[in-house]
Give the backbone structure.
Amino acid sequence: MSISLWKILAAIALLLILPWSAFAHVQGGQAAGFITGLEHPWSGLDHVLAMIAVGLWGAQLGNPAIWILPVTFPIVMSLGAMMGLLGIPVPGIEIGIALSAILLGIMVLGEVRPKLAFAATLVGFFAIFHGHAHGTELPAGQSGQLYSIGFVMATGCLHGLGILVGVIHRWPMGKLILRGSGGLITCMGILFLWQALA
Amino acid sequence: MKRSFSPYWLLLPVVSMVAVILHPVRAAAHLVTTGMGPVYDGIGHLLLTPEDLIIALALALYGGLLGTTHGRHALFLVPAAWFVGGLFGMQTAPLPDFPVAALSFLLLGLLIAADLRLPLSAFTITAVAVSLTHGFLNGIALKSGPAGLGLIGITAALFILVTLVSALVVSLRPPWSRIAVRVMGGWVAAVGVLMIGWFVRGNMA
């Protein structure tokens, strides 16, 4: 017996047009909080590039950096977000985010292989700036908890994307492309720094 | 005759899940009313309350990560302790003003991320303590709603959830799949830190 995809889609379409009551926001901002959190890291190219760079660098460095860096970043980022939530100021947030793109891009460009502790510290240091920016930008009336879940998941997915792209590191041409993408991230970081200082 | 595996079978659950998510139903994290009775209300409560659902998944992930014996313990201990905690909770008055869920997120998240090889006794104590606590909080919330039958719904849903997830993790063989579980642990810990932040900010306001 085979089920055609069209039959499945038709059944789902019928299910969706059933006249059920819609009460999407009874709890006040639950769904909106999650979606806002999920969208937030994707909304700024500076965040996106830095987080993808973490994944790319992890893929270049191999095991165990490939998982230590993407585990370190969200945990330290959440500490940065907590500082933002508690009103603890961090100077030069935008400059820090731009520098993260520049330095992480340079690491990918040069295929730099420092000690694991240094790599994790560098990633963790910049995660504070990214986290602080996220922690202070929850729109009023939305669920903080679901916003947090959303933005941690989105950050993790960006790292995952970087790691997936970084798989090309296995091939000689892939290595070159990867290093080139590091160069691109560095250039973009310089542009962000220029904008932050302007 | 042996039937060959078709990618269509993977599409079915994925597309169905998207449809269920898009379907307009009542969204309420606490005391969910499904209209199908208190047992289903309990099941809905567990599945729509992130602080309970994620903890249940984290316990299952950690049990599975530690191996077959730990996973088997988890699938019986977690629902049983959750149920007992719920019974106690239903005898108690207001919800405690303490970020218990956040601490559970942080603890379990760090244990999973570090892939800390706890001995069976220590794992048992951790799983029972976390499950008792969350069951207790559920019991307080359920008291004014579906009560005991709701708790039975939660326990049944927990058993199925923990069984499926821990069995899935135990069966993982490629090294990257265990890394993926550890990364998810990092996410859970990060959410825990943020929940503590929201709690402290709420108290400062």
